Amino acid sequence: MDLTEHFKKGVAEVKTSAILNFAKYSSQYPGVVKFTVGEPDFNTPDHIKTAAIKGIVDNHSHYAPSNGTPGLKKAASDFLKRRYDMEYSPDEIIVTNGATEAIYTVMSAIINPGDVVVLPAPIFPLYIADAALEKAEVVQIDTSSTGFKLTPEQLQAAVDEYGDRLRVLVMNYPTNPTGVMYSQEELNALAEVIKGRPTFALCDEIYSELNYDQEHASMAKAIRDQAIVLNGVSKSWAMTGYRIGIMAAPSELTEQLAKVHQFITTTEPTPMQDAAEEAFKNGDEDAERMKAAFKERRDYLYDALTDLGFDVIKPQGAFYIWAKIPEGLNQNDTEFVYELCDKAKVGVCAGSWFAKGGQGWLRFSYATALDDIKEGVIRIKKFIEDETNGSK
User: Fold this and answer.
1) Residue 339, exposed/middle/buried by CB under 10 A (0-12, 13-18, 19+)?
2) Where does 283-344 have alpha helices with state H?
3) Which of 160, 201, 249, 387 is deepest in the core (most CB within 10 A)?
4) Please, what is the angle between helix 251-265 and helix 98-110, to 10°?
5) Does the keyword Transferase feature in the UniProt annotation (predicted)?
6) pTM surpassing 0.90?
7) pLDDT above 60 for 392
């Protein structure tokens, strides 16, 4: 008897992560240059590590409150106000197991089978998988012809088609994989389309500290009562392994989301919450220092890839560059990245792994050392030369 036939139907629709699968594949090559996984190469700042150690020494080894320690929730509340002028009381914040758990909590708390989840694509595939697990109808809006930004007209067309079934609009900005950022005016215009409708705006702002050319903007400022804001410490303070995210929403929404959260994870590790509290309270300079390094890497990689013939979207935030495969090379992006890995020992992500609009594109993560980026460019240049000469 094949018991896999009796799993929840949504599970069969979910594929394993192509990004993680490829990262594992590329690791077979010693010395491979990886532009794959979005993980900062920095170490966590010492004062933040000290806070975690102090938590252990002080015997913070018991269950924290399910929604998070009072100190961390207060620090997160102050951070959102100080950095972005967003008002959320500590009671309106839930500490999660990274933004990943927060996304799943939102999807599982809100979606009923047949509800519609709309997302601008290309986009990080996690949202699609979580929505599919809840048997939602996932609608991907291809933004490749609109500068990789969702427009009010595109969103209005979805509202006209799906009406009150449109339950969740996913907005991630700065955007993974393109690095595109929305202005406050652009987000306000999108918010106006769904304002007053039974639609939640899931605002994933995990890259909020990594804005290079403008101030961070948030849809929650336009429709606070419909917005659920996600943030955390992973990207801005190189704390991916600490697994601490935050979810902020009006109290009536938080009360319901907390029910699902507590049964998924109970609570997060208390010493890790101590560390995240320190990051939010005293880590502004750390985040700025890392952002400066990322910006230098962005500028170098953007210029280098442009010189090599790539059509490159210059990122305004996060640490990803979105580049179109040059003409004359294999335009099948999945085949291309495996060829590049096998022949040049360089790992990049295929654009088609990020849903609609990604075919023929590549995502480069520049969350790696500048020297490694420079070596990767040298290898890519030689790969292109070899492929071009070999095709003549």
Assistant:
1) middle
2) 284-307, 333-344
3) 249
4) 110
5) yes
6) yes
7) no
Helical (H) or strand (E) element with 103:
helix 98-110
Mean of pLDDT values over 265-290? 98
Q: Where are the alpha helices (DSSP H) in 27-69?
A: 46-57
**Residue 113, token pair as written in the block:** 């089978």
Structure tokens at 220: 């929650």
pLDDT digits (tens, 9 = 90+) for 54-64: 999 999 999 99
Rg (C-alpha) for the chain, rounded Å, is 21
For residue 138, the SS3 value is strand
Which pLDDT score, from 0 to 100, does residue 391 have? 54
Give CA angle at 240 (374, 29), nearest 5°: 45
Cis omega (within 30 of 0) for bond into 30: no
Residue reference for tokens 């950022």: 181
With tokens 């996304």, the residue in question is 103
Checking if the pLDDT of 227 tops 70, the result is yes
The burial class, CB within 10 Å (0-12 / 13-18 / 19+), for 188 is: middle
Report how far apart, in Å, the C-alpha atoms of 242 and of each of 127, 270, 281 are. 21, 11, 16
Domains in the chain with CATH codes: 3-43+286-387 (3.90.1150.10), 47-283 (3.40.640.10)
Using alpha carbons, select from 311, 314, 307, 300 the residue that is nearest to residue 369.
300
Q: One-letter amino acid identity for 145?
A: S
Q: What is the mean pLDDT of residues 297-312?
A: 98
C-beta separation of 382 from 373 below 8 A? no
Q: Is 163 exposed, middle or buried (0-12, 13-18, 19+ CB in 10 A)?
A: exposed
| Contact criterion met (CB below 8 Å) for 180 and 130 | no
Query: Would the pLDDT of 183 be above 70?
Result: yes
Say yes or no to pLDDT of 33 above 70: yes
Other CB atoms within 10 Å distance of the CB of residue 252: 9
The SS3 call for residue 315 is: coil
